[in-house]
């Protein structure tokens, strides 16, 4: 995945990402509200060396080096019972205080003693008491020397602890920031996980990744499709109509000797195969070619409904020789488009569509029409489309953005190839991406309205 793929995933999962941030902010605010106030008091002490007047320069240097080296040892002693037990006794504390830290910079003789407590006054008292106990322990026990010693170690309090006026915790701003960042990270992670598990195709690149065949067209999403499926006829200047005309141009490249016989199918129902077949047939007829549209979906026919024609007698009746082809083939208005509805629903659709009678029908129509389009059932539900594809130029697979799964699309293509037929290409329907040409296509209609 490149940067554009990640951006597309995040854009698609924006609700989850925003929800993660909101949950993180809420959690941060809740943690801040439930955290009891905590105060911090600090005092600074310095490890000083007192050198006798009679000390030589070497002894003075040795004393200074000793003091600097002793700082790290003293820092660890501050939190030991040797220093803290006298503090507990002096202040009458119920237990050894926690939240005591001692820090010192490298090669620095100053030690900072920090005490955290829920009571601001108690924090200051404990910090000062620890500093005093530390000084007594060092000078009275650890560094007790004879009077004639060349140097002596002293602990000097540089700045006593003051009673804090503001708590260091809870920090609402910090809690909100951390909560938002953690929520954002969780939202982004969940978005990427959903994208990795989501096998639905959404853009043409997804379809191309699923099948090694070209994407012949992209049909834009239109909420009006259900009420007006024949966009080429009802809204010829619409983006959908233009998309079908572009599809027509690409399909022409598969003509053989100026003629093409195509099966239009999909992996599952509701992906737009019937509307694509109908509009593609209309687009070819608008270009002046003689077109025959066959409703090969004998289980759930749509052609008669879309075109508003009588579909009680049709393909199935011709195949069982209950009707003549010329009697049931219906011309669409004054155009060069002829429609063959599905007819009576038979008990054995696959056998009829794969029969020699179907081959003879296609051969008969090929002698009279430039383009033959067969609207066939979904491939993963029944084998009808694969059976028909064997006697045609090839199949055009329909994939609906946001609903067709890539693995199911690949399985549909395999079912066609398994019978020796050819998948010519795919068409992405319900494409939600904007089409810049929309305003241009609508311009003539607007001009006429003026």
Give a written overview of the molecule.
With 450 residues, the chain is of the alpha/beta class. It has three domains: 3-35 and 170-197, no CATH class; 39-159, Alpha-Beta Plaits, CATH 3.30.70.1130; 204-449, P-loop containing nucleotide triphosphate hydrolases (Rossmann fold, 3-Layer(aba) Sandwich), CATH 3.40.50. Helix content is 47%, strand content 18%. It has 18 helices and twelve strands. It has helices spanning 3-12, 14-34, 57-77, 81-91, 120-142, 172-197, 204-210, 231-234, 239-251, 273-286, 303-307, 315-319, 325-328, 349-353, 356-366, 384-389, 406-417, 438-449; strands at residues 39-51, 100-104, 110-117, 151-159, 215-220, 260-266, 291-295, 330-331, 337-340, 371-375, 394-400, 423-431. The strands form two sheets. It has an eight-stranded mixed beta sheet, with helices on both faces. It has a four-stranded antiparallel beta sheet with strand order 2-3-1-4. β8 and β9 (337-340) form a beta hairpin. α2 packs antiparallel against α6, α4 (81-91) crosses α5 (120-142) and α9 (239-251) crosses α10. It is rod-shaped. The two termini are 48 Å apart. Mean pLDDT is 87; it is low at 437-450.
């Amino acid at each position: 995945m490149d940067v554009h793929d990640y951006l597309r995933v995040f854009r698609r999962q924006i609700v989850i990402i925003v929800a993660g941030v909101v949950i993180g902010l809420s959690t941060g605010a809740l943690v801040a509200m439930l955290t009891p106030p905590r105060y911090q008091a600090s005092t600074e002490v310095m490890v000083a060396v007192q050198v006798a007047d009679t000390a030589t320069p070497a002894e003075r240097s040795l004393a200074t080096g000793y003091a600097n080296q002793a700082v790290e040892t003293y820092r660890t002693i501050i939190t030991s019972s040797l220093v803290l037990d006298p503090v507990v006794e002096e202040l009458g504390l119920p237990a050894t205080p926690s939240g005591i830290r001692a820090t010192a910079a490298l090669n620095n003789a100053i030690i900072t003693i920090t005490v955290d407590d829920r009571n601001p006054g108690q924090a200051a008292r404990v910090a000062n008491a620890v500093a005093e106990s530390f000084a007594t322990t060092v000078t009275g026990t650890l560094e007790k020397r004879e009077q004639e010693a060349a140097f002596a170690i002293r602990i000097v309090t540089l700045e006593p602890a003051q009673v804090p006026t503001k708590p260091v915790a809870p920090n609402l701003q910090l809690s909100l920031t951390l909560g938002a960042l953690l929520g954002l990270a969780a939202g982004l992670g969940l978005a990427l996980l959903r994208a990795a598990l989501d096998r639905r195709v959404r853009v043409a690149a997804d379809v191309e990744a699923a099948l090694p065949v070209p994407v012949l067209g992209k049909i834009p999403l239109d909420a009006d499709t259900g009420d007006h499926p024949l966009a080429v006829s009802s809204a010829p200047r619409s983006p959908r109509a233009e998309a079908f005309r572009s599809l027509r141009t690409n399909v022409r490249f598969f003509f053989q000797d100026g003629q093409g016989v195509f099966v239009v199918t999909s992996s599952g129902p509701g992906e737009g195969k019937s509307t694509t077949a109908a509009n593609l047939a209309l687009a070819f007829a608008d270009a002046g070619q003689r077109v025959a549209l066959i409703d090969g979906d004998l289980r759930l026919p749509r052609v008669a409904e879309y075109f508003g024609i009588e579909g009680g007698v049709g393909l199935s009746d011709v195949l069982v020789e209950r009707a003549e082809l010329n009697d049931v083939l219906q011309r669409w208005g004054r155009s060069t488009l002829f429609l063959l509805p599905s007819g009576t629903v038979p008990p054995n659709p696959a056998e009829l569509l794969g029969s020699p009678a179907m081959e003879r029908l296609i051969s008969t129509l090929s002698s009279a029409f430039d383009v033959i389009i067969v609207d066939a059932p979904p491939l993963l539900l029944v084998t009808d489309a694969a059976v028909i594809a064997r006697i045609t130029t090839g199949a055009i697979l329909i994939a609906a953005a946001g609903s067709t799964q890539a693995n199911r699309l690949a399985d549909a293509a395999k079912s066609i190839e398994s019978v020796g037929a050819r998948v010519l290409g795919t068409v992405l329907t319900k494409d939600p991406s904007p089409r810049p040409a929309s305003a241009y296509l609508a311009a003539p209609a607007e001009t006429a309205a003026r």
